[in-house]
Amino acid sequence: MRIVLVGPPGAGKGTQAAYLAENLSIPHISTGDLFRANISQGTELGKQAKAYMDAGNLVPDEVTIGMAKDRMDQPDAANGFLLDGFPRNVSQAEALDASLNADGVKLDAVLDLEVPEDEVVKRIAGRRICKNDSSHVFHVTYSPAQQEGVCDTCGGELYQRGDDSEETVRRRLEVYHSETEPIIDYYKAQGLVVTISALGKVSDVTQRAMDALKGDRAA
To answer: Which GO cellular component terms, listed alphabetically, does the Swiss-Prot or TrEMBL entry include (predicted)?
Structure first.
C-alpha cells in the first residue's frame, strides 16, 4: 500500500506510522528522517537543505520533494510506503501525484488522524522532559512523575520545552490549519481520505487505522 499519513501536531503520527509500517510491511518515510539521512550522508540534496537551514531559511519544496522521490525509488519501497510529514502542502501533494503518475503508480489511501484542538494542546503542553536525559519523558496528566518536577528514573529536574508551551502549540496548529490541512480536501476530491479518531490507547488507534485501511470506513 502507498499511504500518506496526516494529522495535527500531537496526533501521534510518528507512533502510529511506526506501528502501521510494521503491520503492513512497508517502509515508514518521515520528513525528519529524510533530512537527517541526506545531510549526514552529504548528498547533493542534503547539502542544499543544510545551506538553507544554516541560513535560517525554509527548505524549498523542490528539495524536499527530491529527497522524498529518491527514498520512494529505493527497492524496499517497491511494494508501498507510508509517508509521514510529506506532503506538507498542496503544491507538494501535486508534485507527489505527478511523480507517482510518471512511475505508473498512485496512492492507495490518505489516513487522517483526527484529534480535537484542545486535546492537542493538552497532550503537547503537558509534556515534561528530564534535564539529565531527554529520553525520560513524562506528562502531567497521562504519565506524571511520582514527585512533581523530579524524574522517576534519575532524579533529574523536569522541565517544559519552549516549543511545548501552549502559545507555541497554538501557533503550530495555525500553521497546520493554513498550510497542511488543505491537502485533506485535495485528496478528498480523489476519494482517498480515510478519517479516524486518534483518541484512546495507542493500540486501539492502530487497530482503528488498520480496519479503516482495509476498507471498513465505519471504523
So the answer is: cytoplasm
Nearest C-alpha neighbor of 80 from the set 113, 103, 114, 112: 103
Domains of the chain: 2-27+74-213 (3.40.50.300)
Quote the CA–CA distance of 168 and 61 in Å, as a whole number. Answer: 24
**Could you tell me the CA-to-CA distances from 142 to 86, 145, 201 in Å, in that order?**
29, 10, 11
81-84 and 2-6: which strand pairing? Answer: parallel
Please check if 87 is assigned to a binding site: yes
Does 59 show up as a binding residue in the annotation? Answer: yes
**CA-wise closest residue to 96 among 106, 81, 85:** 106
Question: pLDDT by residue (tens digit) across 124-136?
Answer: 999 999 999 999 9
The grid coordinates of residue 6 equal 496526516
Task: Please confirm, yes or no, whether 13 is among the known catalytic residues.
Answer: yes
Give the span between the Cα atoms of 146 and 46, in whole angstroms.
Answer: 43
Q: Given 3-state DSSP classes, what are the helix, strand and coil percentages for the chain, each rounded to the nearest 5?
A: 50, 15, 35
Given 2, 13, 122, 123, which residue is catalytic?
Answer: 13
Dihedral sign (CA 57, 60, 61, 63)? negative
Instruction: Give per-residue pLDDT as tens, 184-203.
Output: 999 999 999 999 999 999 99
123 marked ligand binding residue:
no
**Residue 217 annotated as catalytic:** no
Of the residues 71, 123, 127, 208, which is catalytic? 127
The yes-or-no answer on residue 208 being catalytic is: no
Task: Map residue 131 onto helix, strand or coil.
Answer: coil
